[in-house]
Specification:
This protein has about 325 residues and is an alpha/beta fold. Helices cover about 45% and strands about 15% of the residues. It has an eight-stranded parallel beta barrel with strand order 1-2-3-5-8-9-10-13, surrounded by six helices. The longest helix is centred in the middle third of the chain and has 17 residues.
């Protein structure tokens, strides 16, 4: 199974304390991820601070824009790949500019970029950026994927959709990778329907293994129905991790973390199907043996990639310690 690590691009106040990671810390995390054998790092995408974060922290968090961050990190690494988990296109109104940024990043990184799309967990962010724009965010995201693929594949691209319009755009260079890997994030059937139709991978998050097994099977059926090769399709589950010296230590540390509070905040959106679920059971939390057993259960359910694994931590050093333990003690067994 592929294993990648979460990169704290826009995680202060949400998953980690404020402040958390400087630009120099991001370089260090990426270089350590590469040295320890992680396939890639995955950062999230936020433009403004959520209300619940403002209520908890007096200091405003730093949200590092992921595409620019990756261009910097690519110059400090050799083979590590970079994924967006996820790039929230509903917050990015000009899709031609997004296409230009993505293609440029793919070239500057030597073809090491993976483009993950999502609608965004917090509608309040979208409304803050576009207070007069009435849209269905899922439909907008789907159209953004199709419009981008048009820009990436056609010499002269035009699009006249519900949300995006452009005419006779000659956008070069195209991405270095052909095709550029595109993943679609989300837990509901619309997410894996879009992934089956337009993507190279599906990015669910924090899903109980029983649900994962059912939905991976449904996703596979859709992929095959469309005549696509299942072996070339990724199932990239995003989970939280904390590896303790014992089961009790791992669970206790997880429940005291900012990461745990973040999962609670998602109970009305991304994780609404898991209300009443004990998050330590769903995620990679516990002793080394616990975490290995849980990861392999996801593998048996059809998950191919532990994607952008988010490690509980109060500071960057604890994050690096957890990444190292996971790389040395868990990865060889999954």
């Amino acid at each position: 199974m592929i294993v990648s690590a979460g990169l704290p691009t826009c995680m202060e106040g949400m998953m980690y304390p404020v402040p958390f990671a400087s630009p120099q810390d991001l370089v260090r995390i990426a270089q350590k991820a590469e040295a320890w054998g992680y396939h890639s790092v995955w950062g999230n995408d936020h433009m403004t601070t959520q209300r619940y974060v403002r209520e908890e922290f007096e200091q405003s968090p730093n949200f590092w824009e992921p595409l620019i961050t990756y261009a910097h990190l690519a110059a400090h690494t050799q083979h590590l790949r970079f994924g967006t988990g996820m790039l929230v296109t509903p917050m990015r109104r000009d899709i031609v500019v997004v296409a230009k940024q993505v293609a440029t990043l793919d070239h500057l990184s030597g073809g090491r970029f993976i483009l993950g799309f999502g609608v965004g967990a917090y509608r309040e962010e979208f409304e803050a950026l576009h207070p007069t724009w009435t849209v269905h965010r899922g439909d907008l995201m789907e159209e953004s994927i199709r419009a981008l693929q048009q820009l990436f594949s056609q010499r002269n691209a035009s699009w006249d959709g519900e949300y995006y319009q452009f005419e006779d755009v000659e956008m070069y260079p195209k991405p270095l990778q052909d095709p550029l890997p595109i993943y679609v994030g989300g837990n509901n059937p619309n997410a894996y329907r879009r992934a089956a139709a337009y993507g190279n991978g599906w990015l669910p998050a924090g899903m109980p293994v029983e649900h994962a097994s059912e939905r991976v099977a449904a996703f596979k059926a859709l992929v095959e129905e469309k005549g696509r090769d299942w072996n070339e399709m990724d199932v990239a589950m995003q989970l939280v991790a904390y590896v303790g010296k014992s089961h009790e230590e791992g669970v206790s540390r997880f429940r005291r973390s900012q990461m745990y509070q973040h999962l609670v905040s998602l109970s009305g959106s991304t994780l609404k199907e898991q209300v009443g679920t004990r998050y330590e059971q769903t995620n990679l939390v516990g002793s080394i043996e616990d975490v290995i057993e849980k990861a392999n259960r996801f593998r048996e359910a059809g998950v191919k990639h532990l994607c952008g694994t988010y490690f509980c931590a109060d500071d960057v050093q604890e994050l690096l310690d957890q990444m190292q333990i996971f790389a040395e003690e868990v990865m060889p067994h999954v």
